[in-house]
Amino acid sequence: MATRKQVEFDGSAALAPEQSRTKPPPMYKVLLLNDDFTPMDFVVIVLERFFGLSREQSTQVMLKVHREGKGACGVYPYDVAATKVQQVSEYSRKHQHPLACVMEEN
Minimal CA–CA distance to 55: which of 70, 40, 69? Predict the structure, then answer.
């Protein structure tokens, strides 16, 4: 929204537009958490299907989840991140896997 402030030019007052800046929305990191029951192949499929990663990228993220306990799938605005968490959780439950997907502010 532009506001106006008074500026003087050669002794006469004029209104000049003042630009206000909005900061970008906060971004959220979507993470998959390791468990002892979800097959690695299923995690790769989830990463390809819901995060658009290639087979190689999906395998790298899956191995990070396996070795380090969690792995980042992507960074998104709040609404997109929340939707992805919900989609992955529902898909995992539908296929009877306990794969956990969470988001945290980046």
Answer: 40
CA proximity to 48, closest of 103, 40, 29, 77: 40
Short-list 50, 44, 49, CA closest to 103: 50
Write the pLDDT tens digit of every residue in 7-62.
555 666 666 677 888 999 999 999 999 999 999 999 999 999 999 999 999 999 99
Helix (H, G, I), strand (E, B) or coil at 5: strand
Which residues have a Cβ under 8 Å from the Cβ of 92 and sit 6 or more positions away?
38, 42, 46, 98, 99, 101
DSSP string for residues in 31-96: EEE--SSS-HHHHHHHHHHHH---HHHHHHHHHHHHHHSEEEEEEEEHHHHHHHHHHHHHHHHHTT
Is the Cβ–Cβ distance between 61 and 45 less than 8 Å?
no
In degrees and rounded to multiples of 5, residue 99 shows phi and psi of -55, 125
Residue bearing tokens 């532009």: 2
- Judge if pTM exceeds 0.85: no
